[in-house]
Design goal:
This protein is α+β, with helices and mostly antiparallel strands. It is about 25% helix and about 20% strand. The chain has helices spanning about 10-25, 30-60, 90, 135-145, 180-185, 190-200, 350-355, 390-410, and strands at about 165-170, 225-230, 235-240, 245-250, 270-275, 280-285, 290, 295, 300-310, 310-320, 330-340, 360-365, 370.
Length: about 400
């Protein structure tokens, strides 16, 4: 009996498939032909669907919360489903609800159940730069040219930025985007650092520069409380629980230090100019550290622009670090002027040891004697370590895995 061939289906191809299918299944080809191409195509469709049903769920089920080794999930790091659509803030908020298998670490005010679904929306906040520039120098010089060399102010014409301000960059942690949006902005090495850190967040293991009473780095200095403005210089001042911040921004046309005198500094070296009532800043020589979207290297350079609008200072910052970002990153910056002027609200000088105790290299040993960890001792940290939080995160990963296995055997 000849098989019927429907219009639009290649007769020879259909027949060839029927014979192949029959030979594989052990069914005589003549018997298979009676079913015709209709059953053949149905069988093929079922096979495809069955294959998909077996292949897709395994990948789809792998999340930051179910993975056995996040480093093997590199292809998933830019998928919002991998984080269950949680934002970075929401992932960090799980720390209080999940503390090495316990409850209530107290490290985060907004508790979230471990592994719960988040509300992140891809594209809710643009993290990439809207400008065509590829370097900070190109960006700064283009704006300087556009401002015709800048505006020369006197003490009578300089903008008035007096007051006590609060604020800083908006959305540097990805804001309302899922964590995958931040991962997508990072190069492979820094993407891995980022995923390692946020996975530890969810498990109550939070390590930062502050864990060691070390400086918070460049981005902490953007959280200014006071701005002192003069014709040839601007100071941005801030005070936190652990330390004080200061930036010097030279607007006198003196430029950056000579190349031979450059070196990485905690807050970098900033120069600027006025474009009418807007301040434009270029910062280079920033010491590679932690902050912004993730971490950054000594190659980081930034361009900022600020302008006072009523009781706000509206601004923006663009980040250039080719080792870290796949393209320049960008964020809005906003400071709100506080109408309260009570004396007790004035900034204070603080040190980390005022609130966090002594350096983590100093400890009380089993004899009750003040001692210091030396190279080779557990939890020793080297002051020359460029990523001390990373060193501790690696050790934290190892200890946490040991703890998890031990509790599972019980």
């Amino acid at each position: 009996m000849r098989a019927h061939v429907a219009p639009g289906h290649g007769g020879s191809e259909t027949r060839r498939y029927q014979i192949l299918r029959a030979s594989v299944s052990g069914t005589p080809a003549r018997r298979c032909a009676r079913w015709g191409p209709r059953r053949t195509w149905l069988g093929a469709l079922i096979a495809v669907l069955l294959g998909l049903s077996l292949a897709v769920p395994a990948a789809a089920q792998t999340t930051l919360f179910t993975t056995t080794d996040f480093r093997q999930d590199g292809e998933r790091w830019t998928d919002p489903a991998y984080y269950r659509y949680n934002t970075v803030a929401q992932l960090r908020g799980m720390a209080i609800d999940f503390d090495s298998g316990g409850r209530g670490s107290g490290q985060e005010a907004a508790a979230r159940a471990y592994g719960s679904e988040g509300t992140g929306k891809v594209g809710a906040l643009e993290l990439g730069s809207p400008y065509p520039f590829t370097t900070a120098v190109e960006h700064y010089e283009a704006w300087l040219k556009q401002a015709r060399g800048g505006t020369t102010h006197t003490k009578d014409t300089i903008p008035d930025w007096r007051g006590r301000w609060a604020g800083g960059p908006i959305g540097f942690n990805g804001g309302p985007n899922p964590a995958s949006s931040v991962a997508a902005m990072l190069t492979p090495q820094y993407r891995e650092y980022f995923v390692q850190e946020i996975k530890a967040y969810t498990e109550g293991r939070i390590w930062s520069a502050g864990s060691f009473c070390l400086p918070a780095g460049f981005f902490a200095a953007l959280e200014a409380e006071e701005l002192i403005v003069t014709p040839d210089r601007v100071w941005m001042l801030g005070a936190g629980n652990g330390q004080n911040y200061i930036r010097w921004i030279y607007t006198d046309g003196s430029g950056h230090s000579a190349k031979g005198a450059e070196f990485p500094k905690w807050h970098g070296e900033s120069i600027g100019f006025w474009d009418g009532d807007a301040l434009v800043i270029h910062t280079n020589q920033i010491r590679g550290w932690k902050g912004g979207l993730s971490e950054f290297t000594d190659k980081l350079e930034t361009v900022e622009r600020y302008r006072r609008v009523g009781d706000r200072i509206e601004g923006e910052i663009t980040l250039y670090d080719p080792d870290v970002f796949v393209r320049p990153a960008h964020a809005r910056v906003r400071y709100e002027r506080d109408p309260e002027t009570r004396p007790e609200l004035r900034p204070l000088y603080n040190t980390c040891t005022d609130t966090n105790g002594p350096s983590s290299k100093v400890y009380m040993d089993e004899r009750g004697i003040l001692n210091e960890r030396l190279p080779g001792d557990p939890l020793y940290w080297d002051a020359r370590d460029p990523r001390p939080w990373g060193t501790y995160l690696n050790e934290s990963d190892r200890r946490y895995e040991q703890y998890r296995r031990k509790t599972q055997r019980r």
